[in-house]
Design goal:
6-stranded antiparallel beta sheet; 225 residues; single chain; alpha+beta; 3-stranded mixed beta sheet; binds ligand 3VV; 25% helix
């Protein structure tokens, strides 16, 4: 028997499925600022014109920092981060998510909030390390940003799932180093399928838009299958 994909009131607790969870508020401020520093470092390294001596000194400093953390304790790779909203709603994502992971220096990071008009929204600014064509954001990264916003829109409605299908249209070139707005929302549900839509805007103009079918996680006992 099939049933429609009704939103669940509470998201499943990842610990019930063997995944470690850390609260966002437990991430030390020192780690957050280290991550921001590494993010700036990657951008600086990508475009530096420093000479050999400065480059060698920088390499040694980075190697020393890496050695300092090298053998220390680490979270398991699948560790989830728990975010608790002001209204008490709880949400989970992966700690090192490629797009939104709060401790992933390679993530832009995209931080989505509930939008007053419904769905989610975020502002993000992508530096030169996300470049495709000169001065423009790489299309693969635009797809990744849309995918994350689409998946998160389903999660926000209590329907976490995996992307089964993603369609992206690139409407206008998307510039680097300038604020971009991302919006997403659920547009329909059918059995385990959740239809979602998202846009990326620059100066109010849509530069890329995507739609996806997220298939709800088939968790034992949630009645979603
Ligand atoms: C454990 C605790 C959890 C805690 C909660 C927190 C969770 C947090 C979650 C999320 C964070 C938010 C952010 C994430 C954002 C990024 C998302 C990604 O990057 S996802 C990675 C890339 N995607 C994959 O790796 C999928 C790989 N594919 C699969 O695993 C399967 O194909 C899957 C699950 C998608 C479907 O497989 P089946 O066996 O479960 O289900 P079948 O029966 O095949 O399909 C169900 C329905 O979907 C349709 N469907 C399947 N594939 C389709 C497709 N490609 N296009 C259209 N429809 C499709 C089918 O026709 C069927 O529809 P009909 O009900 O019969 O009408």
């Amino acid at each position: 028997m099939t049933v429609d994909a009704d939103p669940v009131a509470e998201l499943p607790d990842p610990r019930d499925y063997g995944l470690a969870v850390v609260g966002e508020e437990e991430i030390p401020a020192e780690l957050t600022s280290l991550v921001a520093e590494v993010r700036s470092l990657v951008d600086a390294v990508a475009r530096t014109r420093a000479g050999a001596e400065e480059l060698s000194a920088a390499r040694a400093a980075v190697a020393a920092a890496a050695a300092q953390l090298g053998d220390g304790p680490r979270h398991d790779v699948g560790t989830m981060v728990r975010r608790t909203w002001d209204d008490g709603r709880v949400e989970y994502g992966t700690l090192t998510n490629a797009v939104s992971g709060p401790t992933n220096a390679a993530a832009p990071p995209l931080r989505l909030e509930t939008a007053p008009e419904g769905g989610l929204r975020a502002q993000v600014r992508l530096n030169g390390t996300y470049q495709g064509p000169p001065g423009l954001v790489h299309g693969g990264w635009l797809a990744a940003l849309l995918d994350q916003a689409l998946g998160a829109a389903a999660v926000a409605e209590g329907m976490p799932g995996l992307t089964a299908n993603l369609d992206v249209d690139y409407r206008r070139p998307t510039p680097l180093n300038t604020p971009l707005e991302i919006t997403s929302r659920v547009t329909g549900t059918e059995r385990r399928k959740v239809s979602v839509a998202a846009e990326i805007r620059h100066d109010g103009e849509v530069t890329a838009e995507g739609t996806a079918i997220m298939v709800r996680l088939n968790l034992p006992g949630d009645g979603g299958a």
